Amino acid sequence: MSLTILDENIWFPPLEDALEDGLLAMGGDLSTERLIKAYQEGIFPWYEGETPLWWSPNPRFVMYPANLKVSATMKQVIKRQAFEFKTNTAFDQVIANCKKIKRAGQHGTWITPAVEKAYNILHQLGVAHSAEAWKGGKLVGGLYGIKMGKLFFGESMFSNQSNASKFAFISYVKQLEAEGIVLIDCQVYTEHLESLGAEMIDRNLFKQLLYKYR
User: Fold this and answer.
1) In degrees to the nearest 10, what's the CA dihedral of 107, 172, 169, 55?
2) For residue 13, what are the domain limits?
3) CATH number at residue 192
């Protein structure tokens, strides 16, 4: 199966056309219209370099909010109010910190200046959201992603203090559940998120849930 090369038109091939590793298409741009179209179709950008790469992995790594797992350690962190939880007060700082974090197995960051600018625009439009952990008046951890219908698409997270990102994630999952969010897209597997309750589901099931709740 050949890889789709996108042009200036806003479109994507069917998810089933993705290669075995989940790569669906390359090219195009990070315009607001294209990014929103991508998330509506269950596709996300992830790349290092200049050319956008668009992904739809199978299986898909997701979390049902009701399945959130909170360890005894994190219950104590929450109980003693080690951090303060906020949303959407420092989106630009959250994505800037996610951009700087060094990650195992990655030589650079996919959050280029163009990506950073594109998601800040989405935030200004009320599409992208941040969840934040604060301590002593300083932002110490957080995450950001896209909220659409009854779905949340997680993009990246960071932590400058132990347990800060976990605190922000757990707090936000609880808030999202209260808001009626039924599925959180975690995109690709990480041991960290699996420990919090994320799981693999077949892409066809993900597609059904996407089309039902987007």
Assistant:
1) -40
2) 4-57
3) 3.40.630.70
